[in-house]
Amino acid sequence: MIDKIHHIGIAVHDLDKSLEFYRDTLGLHVHALDTVEDQGVRAALLTIGNSEIELLEPTNPEANMAKFLERKGEGLHHICFQTEDVDGELEILKAKGVELVDQKSRGGLAGMICFLHPKASRGVLVELATPMDIYKGAGA
Amino acid sequence: MKIKKLDHVVIATTDLDQALQLWERNVGLTPDTSLDQPRGAGFKVARLPIGESFLELVQPLEGSGRFHEQVQERGEGLFSISVEVEDLEGAVTHLREKGATVSEPEASIWPDARVARINAGSTHGVSIQLIERA
Fold first, then answer.
1. A121, B52: Cβ pair inside 8 Å?
2. pTM of the predicted model as reported, rounded to 2 decimal places
């Protein structure tokens, strides 16, 4: 059961420069700024209504984000939906045979997360997330 | 300028019917409205509500137009985002003063809404639409 769009991920070359547009020009509030080593990104989360915009700058040239930028350039990268139970959703998706990137949920910026393979949604990279304050899984 | 929310996310596809099946299977979203060539545009579109927003799946019907070019160039996938503003004219003026390239406001394909588009060159590669709802 999906509750809302949690965030839209945008790949950028230079996080600080992109903030000049998204924060200073659009006027969106930055509520978190963090580096996620295992994903090779530095990220800013900006509030937009009940959702967020996530700006992602690669910090590791070998990570997926850097490769995406090389291939496609800056722009929309993924869409993340919030669910109360990311582990339950994953089991349902596996049972249906949906192509996945992650077989198990893992810790991410948005909480416990997993990615579906873009093939599963005709080219859209979909993330599911359960924020830590509502996560009830084994890792909580 | 005041942004109220993420209004919708546009996804380009070459097969709307199959895309609808996948979105229902993967995340349980189903359309509440479908339009065929709205306002004479060369595409068909379905709207899938989610929370305070919706996904808009768009399939280009002819061999031209911005959706067709996108699918040719980047393949299927995320196309643009649309953000709801309180005052469209004010937002356009503000953005232009800040150096962004923004189209003239026009009627949306959806009733009771007007839109303007910020050029992706001003937004780090993201096609962003501003929408004001009546």
1. no
2. 0.95
